[in-house]
Amino acid sequence: MTINTINDRDYAVAMPEYDYAFWNAMKRKPHNTKELQKGNSNESGAYLPLQANSKMTAALKRESVFRSLATIAYMRDPGGLILAKNCVENSCWTPENGMYTFGNGMGEFTEYNIKSHKLGTLLKYDEAYMSDIGLNIENHLIDSIAKSFGAMEDAAYVNGKGDIQPTGILHNTRGAEIGVSTSALTYEDVVKLFFSVKPKYRKRGVWMMNDETAYYLRTLKDEGGNYIWNHTNDTILGKPVHICNDMPSIGAGDKPIAFGDFSYYWIIIRDDVSVKVLNELYHDDGQIGYIAREYLDAKLIRPEAIKVIQVTELGRDYG
Questions:
Q1: Any idea what the CATH number is for the domain that residue 199 is in?
Q2: Strand arrangement of the beta sheet that strand 306-311 belongs to
Q3: Number of folded domains in the chain?
């Protein structure tokens, strides 16, 4: 896909004529086929119209824990390499008319090969339901696709191996660094994890864990009987807790708690969402099918920005 083709497509999907043709096609009503073809993807689907794509982006941010915390980058060119700045930003005091002394900046960037992982979902609905005049098909499809994609994305952002899906934060070599190793998760271990993260990453730091771990931490006290969890605003040591149930529970060899600045986890959008209507495949069952797909990748570009607790063995019962 060339740059010019991308620009032409962006222009086409922004036009009201395309929007009208797209949603009529989704409803299986007569539509301008030539107009719809201007937004065809390589898999015979059609890209969402501009306004709908904006709604999809917002819906995905609601459904995905990571999309609300990570840095979202767009890289639709066919190339597969980005340079991520991996150094301390340089500033200096300089006298008037004096020379800046920032250094030459060599060696400050890390290369990351960016892949284009395909995520697809199949939605099936009753034909009569989708033809109901009172149904807002745009909102319905966007919400359904976002729920499906959001769940699958978060699972990959935590545990992805980087093969056919993005690289997750718990990847053994390309994920978050281990800040604390313990056999019995204690109040002190959580505090140690907090301070294992450098101050510049703690500034925007958040906690991530699943429900089971959160339940345990809500009951955790120090020797003086003080809770580590602030039950008034759901924070730990002043930093908000985000629940992602793709995080593992407290088990031997697992990493149940992550803390740090998740803006250093980059989600790279390689191609926008497109939808294909399956007009005939489920017709005999009185159903209509939709296949939606997107292409993306994701990587933690600065592993020290997020630290995790690793449980070496179970030294107690957490049930």
A1: 3.30.2320.10
A2: 177-182, 306-311, 257-260, 206-209, 239-243, 235-236, 229-230
A3: 1
DSSP secondary structure letters along 131-176 = H-TT--HHHHHHHHHHHHHHHHHHHHHHH-BSSSSPBPTT-TTTSP
Q: How far apart are CA 153 and CA 124, in angstroms?
A: 21
Model pLDDT for residues 63-109, shown as the tens digit of each residue:
999 999 999 999 887 667 776 665 556 677 788 887 766 665 555 66
pTM for the model:
0.88
CA distance 11 to 98: 48
In a domain, 229, yes or no: yes
- Give the type of residue at 114: I
263 in helix, strand or coil?
helix
- 70 belongs to a structural domain: no
Could you tell me which residues are beta bridge partners of residue 265? 300
Instruction: Establish if 183 belongs to a structural domain.
Output: yes
Structure confidence by residue, pLDDT tens digits, 114-158: 999 999 999 999 888 887 777 899 999 999 999 999 999 999 999
Range of the domain at 234: 177-265+303-311
Identify the H or E element spanning 209: strand 206-209
- Whether 240 maps to a domain, the answer reads yes
